[in-house]
Design the sequence.
């Protein structure tokens, strides 16, 4: 299947950078579509696409020589060092305006660190006086990001543009599966993330069939996760144990350390996973415990460690259909947790966000655990709000129960903040609750908003501000009287 979806912004950036004697840095996780993007950009231009295949110096030089010789149709002799490679790049530029793409550049860095100094000299003393463009592309994000951000790197300040290629959005990924129900599309997105390669490989028409084909009947996803981990991370076995610990519920540094037995080494290993975009941090907000908690950020890694790796025996012993049915409840619970992350992304896309995270409180003595799925400080015009949001990934409509819980928790902060209440519900909302929410300025995001068919709700206008003032007064009253529960009026009392 040859589909090119999205990437309009990135193509425009590349268009603006071409032919100016400048260098561009492009990086992102493997399978994210970097090479596909660059080939699409280059297809109507004179270009040379050079792929670094090895971190071994001699093998790397031989590969470069072979590819350059094929392009030029002339053999300048075997490369004895990167200086010879640079000389051939100069000859290519002299022959006419050219886009020079070096793919998997991190292998060149691994083969010989001095390659960055060679490239710096090439850009400063030659490329800048031509109409050609140099694009360095790589998959090891920590190495590639440092080229553009670390002032100690020779290439720092040499890039006209730095592009981190990020996953596609859910709306973009829907185009890969036009025959799949929207609910299934969303579940698949929360399993695969926005990585084009995985969606291209999946041709099934239901989520159930996709999981059976790609995770149960086949090991290709499992093999992919291990390949990615071993390719990009030196301490891959230890990092795998950390990912297992997080997937099994050990999310604080203390608990991860205790679970793995790594002690203080956990700090460095977690930093490695953070730099490579595999792990993320959830920020504690508004007086939640000061230490952040960790989660597996990469969707495919998260599904593999939470579902696949923990259920090998079940999947090996069962028919794929039977195995899926037995895993159904676990998958549903897992997707409910990923749904919170998805809703956080919707908030970031819809509002000017200063900070975003969660709030939680534990009191073991009273057997109390309280949490708010999303807490964010946002700006709408000149006004700042504290957004409190509940996220429900069920087929049942949300209503007063979810609202009451959210109000009770948000009331803790109403005296110190300018609260704004929001509920996400993939199952929609009870009709009488929708009327109530409209009357009191509560933001509701249902299936249409969640699936990208309608814009996200936005507070706007004097009417909305009046309605919200009613909800504000109620929240303040609850906080002042230290009530533990809030009973919304029934539909008959409004």
Sequence:
């Amino acid at each position: 299947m040859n589909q090119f979806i999205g990437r309009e912004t990135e193509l425009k950036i590349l268009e603006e950078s071409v032919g100016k004697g400048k260098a561009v840095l492009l990086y992102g996780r493997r399978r994210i579509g970097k090479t596909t993007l660059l080939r699409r950009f280059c297809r109507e231009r004179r270009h040379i696409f050079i792929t670094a295949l090895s971190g071994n110096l001699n093998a790397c030089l031989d590969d470069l020589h072979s590819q350059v010789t094929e392009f030029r149709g002339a053999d300048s002799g075997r490369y004895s060092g990167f200086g010879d490679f640079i000389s051939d790049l100069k000859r290519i530029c002299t022959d006419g305006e050219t886009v020079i793409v070096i793919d998997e550049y991190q292998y060149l860095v691994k083969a010989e660190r001095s390659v960055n100094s060679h490239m710096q000299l090439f850009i400063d003393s030659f490329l800048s006086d031509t109409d050609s463009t140099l694009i360095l592309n790589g998959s090891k994000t920590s190495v590639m990001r440092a080229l553009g951000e670390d002032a100690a790197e020779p290439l720092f300040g040499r890039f006209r543009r730095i592009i981190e290629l990020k996953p596609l959005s859910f709306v973009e990924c829907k185009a890969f599966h036009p025959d799949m129900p929207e609910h299934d599309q969303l579940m698949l997105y929360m399993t695969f993330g926005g990585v084009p390669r995985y969606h291209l490989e999946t041709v099934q028409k239901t989520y159930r069939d996709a999981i059976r084909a790609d995770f149960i009947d086949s090991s290709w996803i499992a093999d992919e996760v291990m390949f990615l981990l071993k390719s990009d991370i030196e301490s891959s076995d230890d990092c795998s144990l950390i990912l297992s610990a997080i997937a099994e519920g050990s999310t604080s540094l203390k608990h991860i350390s205790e679970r793995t037995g790594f002690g203080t080494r956990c700090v460095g290993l977690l930093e490695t996973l953070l730099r490579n975009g595999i792990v993320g941090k959830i920020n504690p907000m508004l007086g939640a415990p000061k230490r952040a908690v960790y989660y597996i950020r990469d969707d495919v890694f998260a599904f593999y460690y939470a579902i696949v790796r923990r259920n090998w025996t079940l999947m090996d012993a069962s028919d794929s259909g039977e195995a899926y049915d037995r895993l159904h409840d676990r998958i549903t619970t897992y997707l409910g947790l990923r749904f919170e992350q998805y809703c956080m992304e919707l908030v970031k896309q819809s509002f000017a966000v200063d900070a975003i995270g969660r709030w939680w409180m534990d009191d073991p003595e009273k057997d109390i655990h309280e949490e708010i799925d999303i807490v964010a400080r946002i700006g709408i015009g000149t006004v700042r709000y504290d957004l409190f949001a509940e996220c429900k990934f069920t087929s049942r409509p949300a209503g007063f129960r979810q609202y009451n819980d959210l109000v009770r928790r948000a009331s803790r902060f109403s005296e110190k903040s300018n609260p704004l209440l929001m509920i996400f519900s993939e199952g929609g909302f009870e009709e009488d609750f929708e009327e109530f929410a409209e009357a009191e300025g509560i933001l509701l995001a249902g299936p249409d908003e969640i699936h990208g068919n309608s814009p996200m709700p936005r507070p706007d206008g004097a009417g909305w501000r009046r309605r919200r003032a009613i909800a504000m007064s109620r929240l303040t009253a609850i906080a002042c009287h230290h009530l533990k529960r809030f009973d919304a009026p029934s539909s008959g009392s409004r």
Remarks:
- DSSP finds 22 helices and twelve strands in the chain.
